Amino acid sequence: MDKVLIIDGDRCTGCKVCELICSMHKTGEYNTQQSCIRVLRNMELDVSVPAISTACDNCGKCVDWCFEKAIRFVSYPEAAILRKQAKIGCFPAPFVSYG
Amino acid sequence: MFGWMGKVLRVDLSSGHTNAELTPREMAHRYVGGRGFTARYVYDEVKPGTDAMGPGNKLIFAPGPACGTLVPSSQRWTVGAKSPITGFIGDANCGGSFGVGMKQAGYDVLIIEGKAERPVYLFIDGDTVELRDASHLWGKKTAETVRELKREAGDPDLHIVSIGPAGENLVKFATIQDDERTAGRTGMGTVMGSKNLKAITVRGKAGVKVADVRGVEKVSRQIHDNWRANERGIKALHDYGSGTETGLIYNKLGVLTTRNFREGVFPAYDGIPERLRRDFWLKHRSCFSCPVSCAHVFIVPGGPYAGTFGDGLYAPSYHYTARLGSDDVELMCKMTNLSDQYGVDECELAGVIGWLMECYEYGIITAADLGGIPLPWGEAEGTLQILDMIVYRKGIGDVLAEGVKRAAEIMGRGEQYAMHVKGLSLDARDPRGSKGWALGYAVASRGADHCRHIVPDFMSGRSPEMTWLRTEFPWFKGLDRLSEENKGKFYKWFEDVRAFQHALEVCLFGFESKDRVWTEVLADMFTSVTGVKMTPGDVIAMGERINNLERAFNMREGLTRKDDTLPARFLKEGMTEGESKGQVVDLDTMLDDYYDARGWDRTNGFPGEKKLEELGLGEVADELKNLGLLK
Lengths: 99, 631
Known about the structure:
heterodimer; A: alpha+beta; Alpha-Beta Plaits; two-stranded antiparallel sheet; two-stranded antiparallel ribbon; 3 helices; about 25% helix; B: Aldehyde Ferredoxin Oxidoreductase,  A, domain 1; Aldehyde Ferredoxin Oxidoreductase Protein, subunit A, domain 2; Aldehyde Ferredoxin Oxidoreductase Protein, subunit A, domain 3; 6-stranded mixed sheet
């Protein structure tokens, strides 16, 4: 966890290829529920926000396969500067599971 | 097995009994999945003469072996049954995520039998299968239903299909809605409604194993690279989606359905795609595993329907504009939203309303017939009122809900303007300026349909130039949309490829390849996922088996060559203006060529015993002989 995943919510299309490639390389099968990266969504209003678990080892497979180049890993200092510059706008909240 | 999950779930709504069976290995190897499975189960289990709206009809859901894997756009699924609108085999193919949910729950096929006494929904969580009361959902539109079911389960990732009020009210062209997409054609939502089944929710914890991970990654990467290289196609799909940009080409070539196929040019259409892109669309949205992301969510920014939102503007971009003589983009969006929420097939609905509008112009049908509603071309308020009357079967809506063919028959008027084949309304491309599509509409097993072939008889903006065409078809003289020559052979090949795609359940244009023959790409996908060796020739053989089996089902229901036809307008009335001016369809020439290519009898359009046995369908030939349909 020495890198930070930077996401571009305007580019992510919610295809879940990141979840597929991650789960295969971590578990030996395609299982989006076993992936270290998950796309949180509000499908009706087209919000897709990738989120990662603390188990992520920064292997970069998800970045390598993202067709839209919506995600990338950067160092913490780079991430800090990006965070200072970037605005997180207002948008409909994505859903998470309950219970 | 790799790819397949190994189980078939059978649910009898009459008794409440559920049962998991093993997926037969031979079935998997011979029919692949998806439409291959639905065709085989419907042929085997829905006997000749079954009432499509009765408990004897069966509703079969099936994803493909690649569904839930990295293979691009492999998330599609098919739902099949006997169609209540055509009386022949019915099925609808859909994107979204329901198929992924079925795979994660461990199932390759879901068979719904019988009829529930009162409204229910089916809850599937892996091995837990329950029929639950749906009285609180009955009457709700599809988005409300989905929100409620997700809230009850506390799970935003629950995979759901549902019907809207149209399915409940047995409108003959009702759809089944996935979360994001629609299984639109042939009234599969009507069958679901006739069984009192409001929705199905599915989830599970299983993963999908594949035989050759590197092979899957290689072929998937190839497809991603194809798309990156095809800048024109990517731009067209990203900027304009799967429909509207194609509509510009249709308009230019004079084949854009205009005023119920009376004309083929609608000048006002040309401003619509850019206006949609600029003012209505959000960013791109993908189906599961697909890099193409041709779907867009639209939001109406102002006017009387401000705040209306929805997605998927392939069909409506033509059907709710030019076909109805309208350039009202806001109305198109409102109609799209309502169609999805009510659960009605946009293509059939436009077929009904376009027919009404043409009859209205000629005075064949008047405002008095329509409960006082005037219905000139482009009429907004009247169109919305008619939609409401159809969905709730109010007044004349009760007749119109039967679909354009039956409505014209019941009213005994304007039958010559009812544009359908086998009872199913046509898609947007006028067949007079696209002879390959003309043949496709005429012979497709589920009625006037373009997805059974999408034969490229001219290039749309999104397709890559296919350099392999001349190698695969040495006799082929190039893409000439106005020629009937060799279209039967060409069409047969594409129809078989598309059947295989529908069985593997990969999107019809998600995988297109510039320099590799499509069958090679598909064979690689199948083999790397399942570990079962397949050649490009096998792809055609599998597709051919499915097409012949569907033909056999339709033969049992009384189909003959006379049903493989087109509305007389396309055979007799030349196009009035534009780049296809004067064109009519010489269908008989193409039909003979097609039957010859298929090895079918020219006189009745039947496959013979030899052809069926060659495809491993000897038992089907025996049954057809017993029924006196084959000598």
